[in-house]
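EI: anyone free to look at a 203-residue chain?
SC: sure, send it
EI:
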Amino acid sequence: MNQLVGPAAKSLRKLEHAVRDAGGQLILSDAFRTFDMQMQAFLDWQSGKKKAYSPPPGHSFHEAGRAIDISLDDLGIKLLDFWVLAKKQGWVPIVSKPRKNISEAWHFEYRGYFAELIPIIRIKKTAKLAIMDIGIKENITQIVQMHLKLQDFYAGNIDGVIGPITEKAVMDFKAKYGLPIDTSFDSYFILLLRNKTYDKFGN
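SC: here you go
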């Protein structure tokens, strides 16, 4: 349940130490969720068992290993002070004010380079791509388009449709990095594509 993607896990460890140094403690109540776990959270919200909104499966950063829920009661420092520490490590709140009585005040996301996509394609679709990027129900064409867009090779929609704009972006990327210039998606191309995004954004 407490699995996170590598950069998020490393950042969380640093955040844990920072909170401890400030006199508090960081206790998680939730982190990674499987499809079934997210479905249960969504159904619990629909039935009223869970008061805070949970999106349906496929739309939560929890499923991408990039979200945590923390225990506010155990934090031991002011929530505002935690916000400052969290933001330094790349963890962002989804509420507008650091008030414990606000629903989802406990939820923080490590969006990394996916933050670049939110203004373009909105939060739910970005979360869906983040889930795909760790190999869960992956639409490889959308993943390719996403990484090409993040690296400024691709200006089209992230729609999973292979057309001339996608093909040109693939060939431009391959030409830049010395790969055979064609439109295929082999495993080395996918690996290099992802690594170049990581090199650019680091997370």
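EI: The chain has a mean pLDDT of 94.
SC: 👍
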